[in-house]
Amino acid sequence: MGGRDSAGKVGSGQTSFPADPAGRARARVERELGRPIHEVFASFEDEPFGSGSVAQAHHAVLKDGTPAVVKVLHDGAEEKVAEDLGLMRHLAAFAERVDVDIQRFNPVAVVDQFAKMMTQAIDLRHELRNMQRLAAALSDLEWLVVPRPFTDLSTAGVLTMELMPGSPMGAGDEVRATGWDVDDLSSKVVDAWLTMIFSSGFYHADPHPGNFLIADAEHVVLLDFGDVGFVAGPRREDVAAMLLAIASRDVAALTDVVLDVCPTRGNVDVAEMESAIEEWLATYVPEGSGSRDRDLKTAVSAGAMVLRDFGLSLPADVTMLLNVVMRLEGFGRKLGSAQTIDDQLRPFAGRYIREEHSPQKLVQRAIRSVTRWRHLARDLPRDISGVLARFREGEARVEVNFHDADGAADKVVDGLVASAALIGSAQLLSRGAPPRLKGVSVLGLIGVGLAARTLRRIAVRRDGHQTVRQRLITTVRRLR
Most buried in the list 30, 77, 187, 382, measured by CB within 10 Å? Predict the structure, then answer.
């Protein structure tokens, strides 16, 4: 974050939001850090150099002489956000209740996702952790620099980081004037983001020129760490397959991936959906077109409408990732680069798919599966013993409910009882099992009697059986 000489944007990416009245930021810093400001900083400028929707930024100098930027939440930001989110939730729930068409867009879920983002935005510790994590992920890239945060001078309401001098990343001529080649810079940025996405899944979610400073002809500073994304391994494979299917115009493969990724609310006419996706490809991603010849934002919006027509919507993590791809595509355009994202995206996605299906990865998955089954086999006897112990102690019970309108279960049970009684009786009689009456096993005779009684009950039930339909007709007749 910062101004034209340091760290870019504040909060939401704007610098036109009004700052707090004089002295409010200083008072909050002292309250958050628990010390008078002169004990913390050698100097602190009360006038902010940037102000965003939730925070403002001040220049400061640490006690050891290190230039710093102090990001401070606006006074009352937490209460204002909570109030706004409460109103948004109320309106979204009301809209879902009264309008079926709006309900398809799932406004409550959209507000919930926005609420999660805003809740993180008003806790600057979240941004600090993002800075640390991205600094580690990008440590191999010598050209891309992440500002160093000062954790002992940072809290939920205050974030202190080193001041990073540099010039804003403007148009192509301005970039070239700093010693950078715009094609090379655009290629490096896209490569860095695709590496983040497909390697760890954790990535900076707002890669546009306003979030960079050009330090010199060899180094670029990354700014604004409040907006990040994460996509898990299986989802990364889905996204890679989706991008490859779009690039190769494989309608069937794209339909399969979409159905795998999107939560469904009932049956989907797959043939009709394939037809709609094919029409979308022909309209918004025409064959032979490059990224310079299309409007990716319009294409994604139209694709979302196609999904909604079938009661589907992309999960939030996939939507965020597609937004990042759109920003990456626009990055080069704003610099005037001749590079296109297609030049790098397709090889990255293809390589990721091949690696995920390599023998080494398959063996790793097999080992994980075997380990899970081994743990299950190890724990299962103990779990069963625990359940049986609870049954013995009367602490557990099993309740089974059958919907058996025609008494089929009773017939099955009676048949089993009769069969068991006949077989058991035959064994007892043939062996002359004691006690005996005139040489005949008494238990065998009892078994024969039980079997006969059960068989008679089955016969009576069969002769007097009525189907559900017959019983319904009889009931109607009685009512008449």
Answer: 77
Provide the β-strand partners of residue 440: 437
Buried b or exposed e, range 431-461, using 16+ CB within 10 angstroms: eeeeeeeeeebebbeebbebbeebbeeeeee
220 has which bridge partners?
144, 214
Contact 308, 104 (CB under 8 A): yes
Residue recorded with tokens 């034209």: 4
Identify the residue whose tokens are 């030049």: 343
Residue from 448, 446, 457, 464 nearest 415 by CA: 457
Cα Dmax for the chain: 119
What number of residues does the chain have? 480
149 upstream amide cis, omega within 30 of 0: no
Whether the Cβ atoms of residue 234 and residue 385 lie closer than 8 Å to each other = no
Contact 68, 161 (CB under 8 A): yes
Tokens at residue 371, please? 């380990």
Cα 122 to chain centroid distance, Å, stands at: 21
Is the bond preceding 286 in cis, omega lying within 30 degrees of 0? Answer: no
Find out whether 330 and 208 touch, Cβ atoms under 8 Å. Answer: yes
Angle at 182 between CA 179 and CA 184, to 5 degrees: 90
Instruction: Give the distance, in angstroms, between the CA of residue 43 and the centroid of all CA atoms in the same chain.
Output: 43
Q: Nearest-5° angle of CA 217, CA 219, CA 223?
A: 130
Q: Is residue 262 classed as helix, strand or coil in its secondary structure?
A: coil
In 3-state terms, what secondary structure has residue 279?
helix
Contact between residue 273 and residue 255 where contact means Cβ atoms under 8 Å apart: yes
Query: How does pLDDT run along the chain (480 residues), one tens digit per residue?
Result: 444 444 445 543 345 688 999 899 999 999 999 999 999 999 999 999 999 889 999 999 999 999 999 999 999 888 988 888 889 888 888 888 887 767 766 778 778 878 887 888 889 999 999 999 999 999 999 999 999 999 999 999 999 999 998 998 887 788 899 899 999 999 999 999 999 988 888 999 999 888 999 999 999 999 989 888 888 888 888 888 888 888 788 899 999 999 988 877 668 889 999 999 999 999 988 776 555 556 777 888 888 889 888 888 888 888 888 888 888 888 888 888 887 777 777 777 777 777 666 676 566 656 666 666 666 667 667 777 777 777 667 666 655 554 444 455 455 555 655 566 666 666 655 656 666 666 666 666 676 676 677 666 666 555 555 555 555 556 555 555
d(CA 198, CA 191): 11
Tell me if 201 sits within 8 A of 231, measured CB to CB. Answer: yes
